[in-house]
Specification:
Elements lengths: L3 E4 L4 E4 L8 E5 L10 H20 L3 E5 L6 H10 L3 H18 L15 H13 L3 E4 L2 E4 L15 H8 L13 E6 L14 E3 L1 H13 L2 E8 L3 H11 L2 E8 L2 E3 L2 E2 L10 H4 L5 H8 L8 E3 L1 H21 L14 H8 L4 H17 L3 H18 L6 H7 L5 H16 L3 H13 L2 E5 L4 E5 L3
Parallel strand pairs: 3-4, 3-9, 9-10, 11-13
Antiparallel strand pairs: 1-2, 5-6, 6-7, 7-8, 11-12, 14-15
Protein backbone atom coordinates (compact mmCIF):
# COMPACT_ATOMS: atom_id res chain seq x y z
CA UNK A 1 0.00 0.00 0.00
CA UNK A 2 1.28 3.48 -0.85
CA UNK A 3 1.43 6.22 1.76
CA UNK A 4 -1.83 8.19 1.76
CA UNK A 5 -2.09 11.66 3.32
CA UNK A 6 -4.97 14.08 3.75
CA UNK A 7 -3.93 17.24 1.93
CA UNK A 8 -5.44 20.32 3.59
CA UNK A 9 -5.19 21.96 0.17
CA UNK A 10 -8.45 20.50 -1.11
CA UNK A 11 -9.20 18.37 1.96
CA UNK A 12 -8.84 14.99 0.23
CA UNK A 13 -6.74 11.90 0.79
CA UNK A 14 -3.98 11.65 -1.80
CA UNK A 15 -1.17 9.15 -2.49
CA UNK A 16 2.17 10.61 -1.44
CA UNK A 17 4.43 11.07 -4.45
CA UNK A 18 7.61 13.03 -3.68
CA UNK A 19 9.17 15.34 -6.22
CA UNK A 20 12.51 13.61 -5.73
CA UNK A 21 12.33 10.15 -4.13
CA UNK A 22 16.04 10.46 -3.34
CA UNK A 23 15.39 13.42 -1.02
CA UNK A 24 11.98 14.03 0.53
CA UNK A 25 11.71 17.56 1.94
CA UNK A 26 9.42 18.48 4.85
CA UNK A 27 9.02 21.68 6.85
CA UNK A 28 7.02 22.01 10.07
CA UNK A 29 6.33 25.28 11.88
CA UNK A 30 8.03 25.17 15.27
CA UNK A 31 7.48 27.09 18.50
CA UNK A 32 7.80 30.75 19.38
CA UNK A 33 10.28 30.51 22.23
CA UNK A 34 9.03 32.80 25.00
CA UNK A 35 7.83 30.12 27.43
CA UNK A 36 7.98 26.39 28.13
CA UNK A 37 6.29 23.99 25.70
CA UNK A 38 2.76 22.90 26.57
CA UNK A 39 1.04 19.71 25.52
CA UNK A 40 -0.49 21.47 22.49
CA UNK A 41 3.04 22.32 21.28
CA UNK A 42 4.07 18.70 21.80
CA UNK A 43 1.36 17.22 19.59
CA UNK A 44 2.70 18.41 16.19
CA UNK A 45 6.26 17.59 17.28
CA UNK A 46 5.24 13.98 18.01
CA UNK A 47 2.89 13.59 15.02
CA UNK A 48 5.41 14.83 12.47
CA UNK A 49 8.14 12.80 14.15
CA UNK A 50 6.09 9.69 13.37
CA UNK A 51 5.62 10.88 9.78
CA UNK A 52 9.35 11.48 9.36
CA UNK A 53 10.11 8.02 10.80
CA UNK A 54 7.67 6.52 8.31
CA UNK A 55 9.20 8.46 5.41
CA UNK A 56 12.74 7.49 6.40
CA UNK A 57 11.67 3.87 6.49
CA UNK A 58 10.52 4.20 2.87
CA UNK A 59 12.90 6.71 1.24
CA UNK A 60 16.71 6.91 1.31
CA UNK A 61 16.87 10.54 2.46
CA UNK A 62 14.44 12.86 4.26
CA UNK A 63 15.42 16.46 4.96
CA UNK A 64 13.29 17.70 7.84
CA UNK A 65 13.30 21.35 8.92
CA UNK A 66 11.49 22.68 12.00
CA UNK A 67 12.07 26.32 12.88
CA UNK A 68 12.32 28.42 16.02
CA UNK A 69 10.65 31.83 16.00
CA UNK A 70 13.11 33.79 18.13
CA UNK A 71 11.98 37.34 17.34
CA UNK A 72 8.40 38.16 18.26
CA UNK A 73 6.41 40.64 20.35
CA UNK A 74 5.65 37.95 22.94
CA UNK A 75 9.38 37.40 23.37
CA UNK A 76 9.84 41.16 23.73
CA UNK A 77 7.17 41.22 26.45
CA UNK A 78 8.81 38.30 28.29
CA UNK A 79 12.18 40.06 28.18
CA UNK A 80 10.66 43.25 29.58
CA UNK A 81 8.90 41.37 32.36
CA UNK A 82 12.06 39.51 33.43
CA UNK A 83 14.55 42.30 32.78
CA UNK A 84 16.70 39.90 30.75
CA UNK A 85 18.13 40.26 27.24
CA UNK A 86 15.98 38.80 24.51
CA UNK A 87 18.70 36.31 23.55
CA UNK A 88 18.76 34.98 27.10
CA UNK A 89 15.02 34.34 26.94
CA UNK A 90 15.12 32.54 23.60
CA UNK A 91 18.19 30.43 24.42
CA UNK A 92 16.61 29.30 27.69
CA UNK A 93 13.37 28.17 26.10
CA UNK A 94 15.05 26.60 23.06
CA UNK A 95 17.12 24.50 25.48
CA UNK A 96 14.00 23.59 27.45
CA UNK A 97 12.13 22.68 24.26
CA UNK A 98 14.97 20.40 23.17
CA UNK A 99 14.96 18.66 26.56
CA UNK A 100 11.19 18.23 26.63
CA UNK A 101 10.96 16.86 23.09
CA UNK A 102 13.87 14.48 23.68
CA UNK A 103 12.00 13.14 26.72
CA UNK A 104 9.03 12.44 24.41
CA UNK A 105 11.28 10.51 22.02
CA UNK A 106 11.11 13.18 19.29
CA UNK A 107 14.12 12.87 17.00
CA UNK A 108 16.09 15.99 16.15
CA UNK A 109 15.19 17.55 12.78
CA UNK A 110 17.82 17.76 10.06
CA UNK A 111 17.71 21.57 10.27
CA UNK A 112 16.46 23.89 13.03
CA UNK A 113 16.62 27.38 11.54
CA UNK A 114 16.17 30.46 13.73
CA UNK A 115 14.59 33.61 12.37
CA UNK A 116 17.37 35.86 13.69
CA UNK A 117 19.89 33.91 11.61
CA UNK A 118 17.96 34.55 8.37
CA UNK A 119 17.31 38.28 8.35
CA UNK A 120 19.29 38.68 5.10
CA UNK A 121 17.11 36.10 3.34
CA UNK A 122 13.96 37.74 4.71
CA UNK A 123 15.00 41.20 3.48
CA UNK A 124 15.85 39.74 0.06
CA UNK A 125 12.46 38.02 -0.25
CA UNK A 126 10.60 41.18 0.77
CA UNK A 127 12.53 43.15 -1.84
CA UNK A 128 11.49 40.67 -4.54
CA UNK A 129 7.84 40.83 -3.46
CA UNK A 130 7.94 44.64 -3.76
CA UNK A 131 9.55 44.40 -7.21
CA UNK A 132 6.87 41.93 -8.35
CA UNK A 133 4.06 44.24 -7.27
CA UNK A 134 2.91 42.09 -4.35
CA UNK A 135 4.10 44.38 -1.54
CA UNK A 136 4.38 48.09 -0.77
CA UNK A 137 5.86 50.49 1.77
CA UNK A 138 3.63 52.53 4.04
CA UNK A 139 4.29 54.43 7.28
CA UNK A 140 7.61 52.70 7.94
CA UNK A 141 6.11 49.26 7.25
CA UNK A 142 6.21 46.90 4.30
CA UNK A 143 2.89 45.15 3.69
CA UNK A 144 1.77 42.36 1.41
CA UNK A 145 -1.10 43.49 -0.83
CA UNK A 146 -3.52 40.57 -0.72
CA UNK A 147 -5.55 41.50 -3.85
CA UNK A 148 -2.34 41.09 -5.89
CA UNK A 149 -2.55 37.32 -5.38
CA UNK A 150 -5.68 35.99 -7.06
CA UNK A 151 -5.49 32.56 -5.40
CA UNK A 152 -5.48 33.95 -1.86
CA UNK A 153 -7.86 31.92 0.31
CA UNK A 154 -7.53 28.64 -1.60
CA UNK A 155 -5.99 26.75 1.34
CA UNK A 156 -8.44 27.86 4.02
CA UNK A 157 -11.37 27.99 1.59
CA UNK A 158 -12.57 31.26 3.11
CA UNK A 159 -14.29 34.21 1.47
CA UNK A 160 -12.55 37.62 1.60
CA UNK A 161 -14.97 38.84 4.30
CA UNK A 162 -14.33 35.74 6.44
CA UNK A 163 -10.59 36.17 6.07
CA UNK A 164 -10.68 39.80 7.16
CA UNK A 165 -12.81 38.93 10.19
CA UNK A 166 -10.73 35.83 10.94
CA UNK A 167 -7.47 37.73 10.98
CA UNK A 168 -8.68 39.60 14.09
CA UNK A 169 -6.20 42.41 13.48
CA UNK A 170 -7.11 46.06 13.79
CA UNK A 171 -7.04 47.57 10.32
CA UNK A 172 -4.28 50.19 10.18
CA UNK A 173 -5.20 53.37 8.27
CA UNK A 174 -2.16 53.04 6.00
CA UNK A 175 -3.24 49.67 4.60
CA UNK A 176 -4.42 49.64 0.99
CA UNK A 177 -6.73 46.69 1.78
CA UNK A 178 -8.01 45.45 5.17
CA UNK A 179 -6.52 41.97 4.61
CA UNK A 180 -3.00 43.23 3.82
CA UNK A 181 -0.44 41.84 6.26
CA UNK A 182 2.91 43.02 7.59
CA UNK A 183 6.18 41.78 6.13
CA UNK A 184 8.45 44.30 7.89
CA UNK A 185 7.78 46.70 10.75
CA UNK A 186 9.81 49.45 12.39
CA UNK A 187 11.63 48.90 15.69
CA UNK A 188 12.09 51.46 18.42
CA UNK A 189 15.58 51.63 20.02
CA UNK A 190 14.53 49.37 22.91
CA UNK A 191 13.39 46.57 20.57
CA UNK A 192 15.44 44.17 18.43
CA UNK A 193 15.95 45.47 14.93
CA UNK A 194 18.06 45.21 11.80
CA UNK A 195 18.94 47.73 9.13
CA UNK A 196 17.00 47.35 5.89
CA UNK A 197 16.12 49.38 2.79
CA UNK A 198 12.97 50.40 4.69
CA UNK A 199 14.70 51.49 7.87
CA UNK A 200 15.63 49.74 11.08
CA UNK A 201 13.04 47.11 11.90
CA UNK A 202 12.15 43.47 12.27
CA UNK A 203 10.23 40.92 10.21
CA UNK A 204 6.55 40.16 10.45
CA UNK A 205 5.63 36.66 11.49
CA UNK A 206 4.56 35.12 8.18
CA UNK A 207 7.56 36.04 6.04
CA UNK A 208 10.05 34.11 8.19
CA UNK A 209 8.96 30.59 7.20
CA UNK A 210 8.84 31.39 3.49
CA UNK A 211 12.39 32.75 3.58
CA UNK A 212 13.78 29.82 5.61
CA UNK A 213 12.07 27.21 3.45
CA UNK A 214 13.51 28.77 0.30
CA UNK A 215 16.98 28.98 1.88
CA UNK A 216 17.20 25.40 3.19
CA UNK A 217 14.77 23.31 1.14
CA UNK A 218 14.41 25.10 -2.18
CA UNK A 219 11.56 26.69 -4.15
CA UNK A 220 9.17 23.75 -3.67
CA UNK A 221 8.89 21.21 -0.88
CA UNK A 222 6.96 17.99 -0.50
CA UNK A 223 5.20 18.52 2.84
CA UNK A 224 4.45 21.59 4.94
CA UNK A 225 2.99 20.82 8.35
CA UNK A 226 1.75 22.46 11.50
CA UNK A 227 -1.22 22.86 13.80
CA UNK A 228 -4.72 23.44 12.49
CA UNK A 229 -4.63 26.99 13.83
CA UNK A 230 -1.89 27.84 11.30
CA UNK A 231 -4.02 27.22 8.20
CA UNK A 232 -5.25 30.82 8.37
CA UNK A 233 -3.65 33.25 8.32
CA UNK A 234 -0.10 31.90 8.63
CA UNK A 235 -0.02 29.24 5.93
CA UNK A 236 -2.39 31.14 3.69
CA UNK A 237 0.03 34.05 3.84
CA UNK A 238 3.03 31.81 3.22
CA UNK A 239 1.44 30.62 -0.01
CA UNK A 240 0.84 34.22 -1.09
CA UNK A 241 4.52 34.98 -0.40
CA UNK A 242 5.60 32.16 -2.70
CA UNK A 243 5.87 29.04 -0.50
CA UNK A 244 5.02 26.01 -2.60
CA UNK A 245 4.32 22.61 -1.05
CA UNK A 246 2.70 19.59 -2.67
CA UNK A 247 1.01 18.48 0.56
CA UNK A 248 -0.19 20.62 3.46
CA UNK A 249 -0.80 18.66 6.67
CA UNK A 250 -2.40 19.96 9.87
CA UNK A 251 -3.02 18.34 13.24
CA UNK A 252 -6.10 18.99 15.38
CA UNK A 253 -6.29 20.95 18.61
CA UNK A 254 -5.63 19.64 22.11
CA UNK A 255 -8.27 20.27 24.76
CA UNK A 256 -7.98 19.48 28.47
CA UNK A 257 -10.85 17.62 30.11
CA UNK A 258 -13.13 18.88 27.34
CA UNK A 259 -12.10 22.54 27.61
CA UNK A 260 -9.84 24.69 25.48
CA UNK A 261 -6.43 25.34 27.02
CA UNK A 262 -6.11 28.92 28.25
CA UNK A 263 -4.30 30.88 30.91
CA UNK A 264 -7.60 32.26 32.18
CA UNK A 265 -8.85 28.74 32.92
CA UNK A 266 -5.53 27.75 34.45
CA UNK A 267 -5.41 24.53 32.43
CA UNK A 268 -2.32 25.08 30.28
CA UNK A 269 -0.36 21.85 30.80
CA UNK A 270 3.39 22.21 30.41
CA UNK A 271 5.29 19.18 29.14
CA UNK A 272 7.90 19.59 31.89
CA UNK A 273 5.16 19.39 34.55
CA UNK A 274 3.61 16.31 32.96
CA UNK A 275 7.05 14.67 32.93
CA UNK A 276 7.00 14.88 36.72
CA UNK A 277 3.84 12.73 36.67
CA UNK A 278 4.64 10.19 33.97
CA UNK A 279 7.37 9.08 31.61
CA UNK A 280 7.88 10.82 28.29
CA UNK A 281 6.99 7.59 26.53
CA UNK A 282 3.60 7.48 28.26
CA UNK A 283 2.94 11.09 27.25
CA UNK A 284 3.92 10.26 23.68
CA UNK A 285 1.63 7.21 23.68
CA UNK A 286 -1.28 9.34 24.92
CA UNK A 287 -0.67 11.87 22.13
CA UNK A 288 -0.95 9.08 19.54
CA UNK A 289 -4.28 7.68 20.76
CA UNK A 290 -6.32 10.06 18.57
CA UNK A 291 -6.01 10.48 14.82
CA UNK A 292 -3.79 13.47 14.15
CA UNK A 293 -6.44 15.38 12.21
CA UNK A 294 -8.99 15.00 15.01
CA UNK A 295 -9.11 16.92 18.32
CA UNK A 296 -7.34 15.24 21.22
CA UNK A 297 -8.88 15.62 24.66
CA UNK A 298 -6.14 15.32 27.27
CA UNK A 299 -7.00 13.86 30.66
CA UNK A 300 -5.25 12.39 33.68
CA UNK A 301 -7.18 9.17 33.07
CA UNK A 302 -5.92 9.01 29.49
CA UNK A 303 -2.34 9.40 30.66
CA UNK A 304 -2.79 6.63 33.24
CA UNK A 305 -4.28 4.40 30.55
CA UNK A 306 -1.25 5.10 28.35
CA UNK A 307 1.05 3.98 31.18
CA UNK A 308 -0.94 0.78 31.67
CA UNK A 309 -0.90 0.06 27.94
CA UNK A 310 2.87 0.41 27.83
CA UNK A 311 3.11 -1.82 30.91
CA UNK A 312 1.31 -4.58 29.03
CA UNK A 313 3.49 -4.23 25.95
CA UNK A 314 6.73 -4.18 27.92
CA UNK A 315 5.58 -7.11 30.07
CA UNK A 316 4.99 -9.19 26.93
CA UNK A 317 8.38 -8.20 25.52
CA UNK A 318 9.97 -9.15 28.84
CA UNK A 319 8.24 -12.54 28.78
CA UNK A 320 9.43 -13.13 25.21
CA UNK A 321 13.03 -12.59 26.31
CA UNK A 322 15.55 -12.56 23.48
CA UNK A 323 13.34 -14.92 21.43
CA UNK A 324 15.94 -14.97 18.68
CA UNK A 325 15.82 -17.55 15.88
CA UNK A 326 17.74 -17.87 12.63
CA UNK A 327 14.55 -18.37 10.64
CA UNK A 328 12.64 -15.45 12.18
CA UNK A 329 10.78 -13.30 9.64
CA UNK A 330 9.34 -10.16 11.33
CA UNK A 331 8.29 -8.55 8.04
CA UNK A 332 5.78 -11.34 7.55
CA UNK A 333 3.70 -9.89 10.40
CA UNK A 334 4.13 -6.17 9.72
CA UNK A 335 1.89 -5.77 6.69
CA UNK A 336 -1.32 -4.86 8.52
CA UNK A 337 0.49 -2.48 10.86
CA UNK A 338 2.18 -0.67 7.98
CA UNK A 339 -1.13 -0.40 6.13
CA UNK A 340 -2.70 1.29 9.16
CA UNK A 341 0.07 3.88 9.39
CA UNK A 342 0.19 4.34 5.62
CA UNK A 343 -3.50 5.20 5.71
CA UNK A 344 -3.08 8.85 6.68
CA UNK A 345 -1.04 8.14 9.81
CA UNK A 346 -3.85 6.27 11.52
CA UNK A 347 -2.05 5.90 14.85
CA UNK A 348 -5.07 4.63 16.85
CA UNK A 349 -5.47 1.74 14.39
CA UNK A 350 -1.70 1.17 14.40
CA UNK A 351 -1.70 0.94 18.21
CA UNK A 352 -4.55 -1.57 18.08
CA UNK A 353 -2.53 -3.67 15.64
CA UNK A 354 0.48 -3.43 17.94
CA UNK A 355 -1.60 -5.05 20.68
CA UNK A 356 -2.87 -7.72 18.29
CA UNK A 357 0.73 -8.67 17.49
CA UNK A 358 1.54 -8.67 21.21
CA UNK A 359 -1.35 -11.01 22.00
CA UNK A 360 -0.31 -13.35 19.20
CA UNK A 361 3.24 -13.45 20.58
CA UNK A 362 1.95 -14.08 24.08
CA UNK A 363 -0.04 -17.12 22.98
CA UNK A 364 2.50 -18.55 20.52
CA UNK A 365 4.59 -21.62 21.37
CA UNK A 366 6.70 -21.91 18.22
CA UNK A 367 10.17 -20.39 18.84
CA UNK A 368 10.42 -19.23 15.22
CA UNK A 369 7.06 -17.47 15.26
CA UNK A 370 7.69 -15.98 18.72
CA UNK A 371 10.98 -14.55 17.46
CA UNK A 372 9.26 -13.22 14.34
CA UNK A 373 6.51 -11.58 16.35
CA UNK A 374 8.98 -10.06 18.81
CA UNK A 375 10.90 -8.55 15.90
CA UNK A 376 7.67 -7.27 14.37
CA UNK A 377 6.68 -5.67 17.69
CA UNK A 378 10.00 -3.87 17.98
CA UNK A 379 9.97 -2.72 14.34
CA UNK A 380 6.40 -1.46 14.60
CA UNK A 381 7.19 0.25 17.88
CA UNK A 382 10.19 1.98 16.33
CA UNK A 383 7.96 3.62 13.69
CA UNK A 384 5.77 4.98 16.50
CA UNK A 385 8.72 5.83 18.74
CA UNK A 386 7.52 3.35 21.40
CA UNK A 387 8.70 0.22 23.27
CA UNK A 388 12.38 0.63 22.40
CA UNK A 389 13.65 0.40 25.99
CA UNK A 390 14.79 -2.74 27.70
CA UNK A 391 11.68 -3.94 29.60
CA UNK A 392 13.55 -4.08 32.90
CA UNK A 393 14.61 -0.45 32.43
CA UNK A 394 10.98 0.54 31.77
CA UNK A 395 9.70 -1.03 34.97
CA UNK A 396 12.67 0.14 37.00
CA UNK A 397 12.32 3.74 35.83
CA UNK A 398 8.63 3.84 36.67
CA UNK A 399 9.24 3.18 40.34
CA UNK A 400 7.82 -0.31 40.70
CA UNK A 401 10.65 -1.32 43.02
CA UNK A 402 13.90 -3.12 42.26
CA UNK A 403 13.57 -5.64 39.43
CA UNK A 404 15.66 -8.15 41.38
CA UNK A 405 13.50 -7.60 44.46
CA UNK A 406 10.29 -8.17 42.51
CA UNK A 407 11.57 -11.29 40.77
CA UNK A 408 12.85 -12.67 44.10
CA UNK A 409 9.50 -12.04 45.81
CA UNK A 410 7.63 -13.73 42.96
CA UNK A 411 9.97 -16.74 43.09
CA UNK A 412 9.52 -17.04 46.87
CA UNK A 413 5.74 -16.75 46.51
CA UNK A 414 5.68 -19.47 43.84
CA UNK A 415 7.72 -21.74 46.12
CA UNK A 416 5.34 -21.05 49.01
CA UNK A 417 2.37 -21.91 46.79
CA UNK A 418 4.00 -25.16 45.71
CA UNK A 419 4.52 -25.99 49.38
CA UNK A 420 0.89 -25.03 50.07
CA UNK A 421 2.07 -22.35 52.49
CA UNK A 422 -0.70 -19.98 51.51
CA UNK A 423 -0.20 -17.63 54.47
CA UNK A 424 3.37 -16.93 53.31
CA UNK A 425 2.21 -16.66 49.69
CA UNK A 426 -0.43 -14.08 50.65
CA UNK A 427 2.11 -12.13 52.69
CA UNK A 428 4.48 -12.01 49.71
CA UNK A 429 1.64 -10.91 47.45
CA UNK A 430 0.83 -8.10 49.89
CA UNK A 431 4.45 -6.98 49.69
CA UNK A 432 4.21 -6.92 45.89
CA UNK A 433 1.04 -4.84 46.19
CA UNK A 434 2.93 -2.37 48.36
CA UNK A 435 5.53 -2.03 45.60
CA UNK A 436 2.77 -1.22 43.11
CA UNK A 437 3.10 -4.54 41.30
CA UNK A 438 0.16 -6.52 39.91
CA UNK A 439 0.77 -10.21 39.28
CA UNK A 440 -1.07 -12.77 37.18
CA UNK A 441 -0.63 -16.50 37.74
CA UNK A 442 -0.61 -18.63 34.61
CA UNK A 443 -0.24 -22.36 34.15
CA UNK A 444 3.48 -22.17 33.42
CA UNK A 445 4.62 -18.89 35.04
CA UNK A 446 3.67 -15.74 36.92
CA UNK A 447 3.79 -12.46 35.01
CA UNK A 448 3.79 -9.00 36.57
CA UNK A 449 3.20 -5.37 35.71
CA UNK A 450 2.59 -2.12 37.51
CA UNK A 451 -0.79 -1.97 39.19
CA UNK A 452 -3.21 0.81 38.07
CA UNK A 453 -3.04 3.87 40.30
Amino acid sequence: MSLILTNSFGGHKEPFVPQDPANVRIYVCGPTVYNYAHIGNARPAVIFDVLVRLLRDRFPMVTYARNFTDVDDKINDAARASGEPIGTITDRYIGAYHADMAALGVLSPTIEPRVTEHIGEIIDLIGRLIAEGHAYQANGHVLYHVPSFAAYGALSRRSPDEMIAGARVEVAPFKKHPADFVLWKPSTPDLPGWESPWGRGRPGWHIECSAMIERHLGPRIDIHGGGQDLIFPHHENEIAQGTRATYWLHNGFVTVEGRKMSKSLGNVLLVRDLLAEASGEAIRYALLTAHYRQPLDWSAQGLQQARRSLDRLYAILRDLGDASHDEADPDRYLGVFRNKLDDDLNTPAALAELFRLARMAQCESSPTIRASLRGALLSAGALLGLIQQDPSAWFQADGAGSIDEIETLIAKRNTARLNRDFIAADRLRDRLDELGVAIEDRSDRTIWRRAPT
